[in-house]
Amino acid sequence: MRDPSAGPSPAPSKPPPTAPPIPDPVPATARPPRCTPPGSACSSPAGPPPYDAPWNGWWRTPNRPSPLRLPTPTGCAHGPPWSAPGAGPRTAARPGTADALYGTEAERAALYGIDAERAALRASGGRRAARRTLLRSLGPGSHLLPVAARTLIGCALAGYLCAALGVGRPYWAIVTAASLYQANVTLTWNRALQRTLGNLLGVLVFAAVLPLSRTGPLALVLCCLFFSFAAEALITRNYWLGSVAVTPMALLVLEFGGSHPAGELIGDRVLDTVLGALAGFLAATLVTNRRATGRVERALEATARARTEAETAYAAPSAELDRARRALTASLVELREAGDAAAGEWWQRALPEQELLAAEQAGHRTLAATAQRLGPAARAPERGRGRAAHALSIGAE
Fold this sequence. Notes:
Elements: H1 52-56, H2 105-110, H3 112-117, H4 119-122, H5 126-137, H6 145-165, H7 170-178, H8 185-213, H9 217-234, H10 239-253, H11 262-286, H12 292-312, H13 318-343, H14 353-374, H15 382-396
């Protein structure tokens, strides 16, 4: 009860002015029903768990136009900004980003990682730098240019040859030719033998399994699953064994569209495999890699510089020594790749094999010394430090 001596009661305070309502861009009749009743966790102003927003927006990731716009339930905190309770005024959204999907700061923060992954490409010069890197990797003097030229010529030759002979499926020959190319001619020859042997044996397996697969749809599906599992399990261990499983799987997949004459499928596969392997290896032989030895010489110079920097930084702080050690490791990897690639090429200058071996041994000795300097051995007694210094002196020879 109010005290009469307290005087007249104060006038009721006016409510604070509110911003004018934002016009609803979607008519109420066009909205889908609520996904949950009001007051539930989904419709609370606090919003959904952090994983709800990315799950709800998987179909409209930035820079990916969506042919299908799924209806978002109204009344949910992860719904459209105009239907989310407490969403506040909607800010201007940048098209193609998370801002265009979600209105509040919390909703945009849930999808921040999607924009962050594309920050480098959106930055000024990011795409131009990526194009320049690609062009340099395929430009004159690049060790990838001969492989690219072999692939282009070999695939084109295999396709035209099969089309001229009237083989039913020339793309099998193109795939065979493209799968042959490795770092050098020797490895390409090995891959050609493995591919041809695996496909021929796989054709025999297909001929044996075909009657079983035609007993019913379930048998066909189980056969495809078995050969798919076998291909994944074997292809990384032995290429020709993996090809034995890939060939019947590829031929059985054609049975889903309808039965085909077994003789036609087997004949096309054998002809495409043989023609593709011949055309691919012919292109690898004709397109020579005369720059392989030059790559080895450049790798030797880079390894010598990196080893000198690592020896100079041996007494420097750990951060500088770690940087020099990483550079030396990268140069040794490049030196080994260049040597392996050049060892299998023909029609080129003689390789400096002794110099290559000496550079690798000296580089690895220097790496061992820097590892002792950075690792627990750096805190060992003086005898341990003496061994590290002796290893460094050996690497400098």
